[in-house]
Amino acid sequence: MSQRPDVLDEPAPRAGRVGRPAGPTAQGAASREAIVDAAAGVFARLGYDKARMADIIDASGLSKGSVYFHFDSKETLAVVVLEARQARWLRDVENLLEAAAPGVPRLRRLLPAMLELHRADPDAWVISRLISNLAAVESTRELAAEMTQRWIDLVAGLIEDATTGSEEQGAAILATVLVGAFDGLKITIDVTTRGDRDAAAEALAEGGAILERMLLSTLGLPPS
Q1: How far is CA 221 from CA 128, 147, 172, in A?
Q2: Pair 132, 43: CB distance under 8 Å
Q3: Considering all CA atoms of the chain, what is the largest pairwise distance in Å, rounded to the nearest integer?
Q4: Residue ranges of domains in the chain, CATH in brackets
Q5: What pLDDT is stored for residue 166 in this prediction?
């Protein structure tokens, strides 16, 4: 495996660790959360490759010593950001989906739920790139795979519930294609809109609608 140039100036993470415990105090827990929030924002703004620990320290408003007390490298912080944000976003999307009846109505609710997620939390734009970066590192490859699989499983479940007699394997493959296409669309839009979030949101809605029509057509369902 080749060494990534973007982490040559970062302390190497210790195996199996994703940040030091926050400690018994409420202040320690608050500081840790502030660092995670700052890191999420920096990764979303600069991307993982360009982000530096110095940028995260500045964004957190805490001292260098305080940040390094909780997290010893950019990689360990990226892991925590990914785990925390991914869990929250999955929960938020699932809550939005539950507002629709099971089956086809819930599948049709998927795109609006994803668009709402990206409107509510701009940090959601970084998740695809962050997973891709961590998938290239041996120590975090398994975590990146698990994070991606959670979205695939969610979409596959919706497809199975919306179609009668669909095979689980077929639903999983279709869900994999859809998740990959949506993530690729996000990355492409993020690049081409050059940081213009209003333009990015509009493009994501338009591109997402095309993916939705393709999905419904593949399943033999009428368009929305």
Answers
A1: 28, 29, 18
A2: no
A3: 58
A4: 82-218 (1.10.357.10)
A5: 61
